[in-house]
Amino acid sequence: MIRVLVVDDSTFMRHALVSMLEQDPEIKVVDTARDGVDALEKAEKLDVDVITLDVEMPRLNGLETLKKLMKTNPLPVIMVSSLTEEGAVSTLKAMEYGAQDFIPKTQSNDKDAFAEDLRRKVKALARRKSIIRLKYHHHAAPQGAAPASSAAHTAARISAPASTAHIGAASACKGPRDLVVIGVSTGGPPVVQKILAALPASLPACILIAQHMPATFTGPFAQRLNSVSQISVSEAVDGDKLRNGHAYVCPGGMHIGVRQRGPLPEVSVTREPKSALYKPTVNVLMETAGNVMGRRTLGVMLTGMGSDGVDGARVLREKGGCLIAQNEASCVVYGMPKAVVDANLANLVLDADEIASAIIATVKG
Predict the structure, then answer these.
(1) Helix 188-197 with 215-228: angle, nearest 10 deg
(2) If 267 and its partner were Cys, which of 74, 119, 171, 240 is the partner (CB 3.0–4.6 Å)?
(3) 125: number of CA atoms within 13 Å, CB side?
(4) What is the pLDDT of residue 226?
(5) How far is the CA of 105 from the CAs of 38, 221, 341, in angstroms?
(6) Predicted model pTM
């Protein structure tokens, strides 16, 4: 049984969340709290597996509550945020402070979809409780560049046979490659930030990012990445040029990919396919990159629920692209990387701390 503490200053929202969560017989809401002070007291007394945490609350808001919680009683936390730009900024800060995922309140207009998504996230994150407690009790290293000692180690593994790279997939990654495509979902923002912050401004490649995220969140996400990275980062616009040392974040509700326009490839931002379960979908990004750029492409599959991207990754590999998958130990949810590993499509399976060094080594060749 998964034990949940629901924290929200709205009586209506508390009741709604409890009702939605307890539709699943594997989930039990052990208590609710109306503000951060109340939440911290109850989290300490109760044996809680997951907390849903409102951002805006009286006495002690969600961000301050989260910071205190992670110092004293680290647990899996899902932020329940407003779907505004201000809510996006607060939520992205919460992810840096230790929240594992978020769910926007205005999804409640479609109550069934919101409830299903909430239950799915709670069940996935409950499995991370012991890992989160271990991580924070041992004062995990701050985000930023991978340890210097890992760079040479990772670079050596890039040129080694694939059998030494955790799995026995096809040949290991060889460069140079001038396009990096990143697919990511649940738990992604802090990992993407860690990787991009460790890349040099002189990186001889362009980066495209498909992060499952609402439309109002992707702009602030790109701005946050730009502020902490040596490379430049922006939200993608249809027709953008592939620029070395620059990363493009796909706008929420759209799809990002690559198309050939005359003699040069360029960034494609489109609503098609409208039928895709996720917008953006990683499948479109990896498939189009493989078809247009072929062996000039390095794919990176990061933490995320489900299997979005595995079909596109198959095309990317068939066209000569290379693929790195994040390992299970460093994923918030080992779903999307697991799908490509299980399909034997990953050349390398690396810890989040090793991926930036691997990207640098591979694109430079």
Answers:
(1) 30
(2) 240
(3) 28
(4) 98
(5) 21, 18, 34
(6) 0.88
Q: What is the pLDDT of residue 138?
A: 57
Least confident range from 42-56, 136-150, 293-307, 318-332: namely 136-150
CA angle in degrees (0–180, nearest 5) for 318-322-326: 120
User: CATH 3.40.50.2300 occupies which residues in the chain?
Assistant: 2-137
User: Lowest-confidence range among 85-89, 119-123, 265-269, 294-298?
Assistant: 85-89
Residue 344 has pLDDT above 60, yes or no: yes
Q: How confident is the model at residue 82 (pLDDT cuts 50, 70, 90)?
A: confident
The three-class DSSP label of residue 280 is coil
- State yes or no: cis peptide before 265, omega within 30 of 0: no
Instruction: Tell which residue, 262, 268, 258, 261, has the closest CA to residue 299.
Output: 258
The CATH architecture annotation of domain 2-137 reads 3-Layer(aba) Sandwich (3.40)
**DSSP states along 211-230:** E---HHHHHHHHHHHHHH-S
Task: Supply the residues annotated as catalytic.
Answer: 185, 212, 308
Q: How confident is the model at residue 346 (pLDDT cuts 50, 70, 90)?
A: very high
Residue 179 corresponds to which tokens in the numbers above? 């396009």
In angstroms, how far is the first alpha carbon of the chain from the final one?
49
Nearest to 6 by CA among 45, 37, 35: 35
Which part of the chain is CATH 3.40.50.180? Answer: 148-364
The closest alpha carbon to 53, from 9, 22, 7, 106, belongs to 7
